[in-house]
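Whether sequence alone determines local backbone shape is best considered at the level of individual chains. We regard such an encoding as a compact summary of how the chain folds. The sequence in question and its structure tokens are set out directly beneath this paragraph.
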Amino acid sequence: MQALYDVPAPAKINLFLHITGRRADGYHLMQSVFVLLDWHDTLHFERLQTPDISRIDLGLTALTDALPAEDLTVRAARLLQQATGCTQGARISLDKRLPSQAGMGGGSSDAATCLLALNRLWGTGLSRAALMTLGLQLGADVPFFLFGDNAWAEGIGEALRPISVPQQSYWIVKPQAGLPTARIFTDANLNRDTKPATIQGFAEHAASSQTLFGRNDLQPVAQTHCPEIAACIDWLKDQGLNARMTGSGSAVFAPSGSAASLQPQPNGWLVHSCKSLAVHPLKNWAS
């Protein structure tokens, strides 16, 4: 096998995100439900006989910042080389469609897809569990995109249990401004003591209510740094949609219900309609 083309890296949303504490090392403890979406970046991989790793950016738009050469995909490839002793290399091409600094895991998903694809292309043969351990070195969201299923997440996001979530259509709205994750988690006003929820409580709410479960504890702080988040939520609510920020922002989502179209959006906002996925499109690439 010399190449793998058109390999997807899907986005995710957090249906809720509760911060339940903080570890001694500064990492925050959380609970969330991660749901995969059919909106994705696309990557292409060509195998090299030398250990060189290079990356080419394709299809960049004004809404997506240019990516540095030393990004998570390059780091993921080098980490896999180091962990396995692989002497092969790769040329990686990335068609970036997911917005950056949106709280949708785009960079983490790219890294996870890179690990899955190169594990196959190089024949390094790591298990899913081994890839997830490697992925955690790259970021707390990376293991989820290797996990294969929608997930109930705890810990720092790495303690995952599969969860069945009914397929849903969503509107995603991303204002022009983005938000670095570190800015939110270092804010002194962030609530860090939400009472832990349960899977049973989430499931019972989902079965009996049309409202979103829980809340996103990051949203109040994020809105102080990026007031456009509140504007996006209000714009969706004015159209009868129940909206919330995903992850650390700045994108917000709303179950679309019967809203097949929306009012014209303000200039600079990205508005996208998508659906949830039952499983990751590369689930069968690792076991």
The helical segments are 72-84, 106-121, 128-136, 142-147, 181-185, 199-208, 219-225, 228-237. The longest strand covers residues 28-48. Confidence is low (pLDDT under 50) at residues 61-67. The chain has one domain: 1-287.
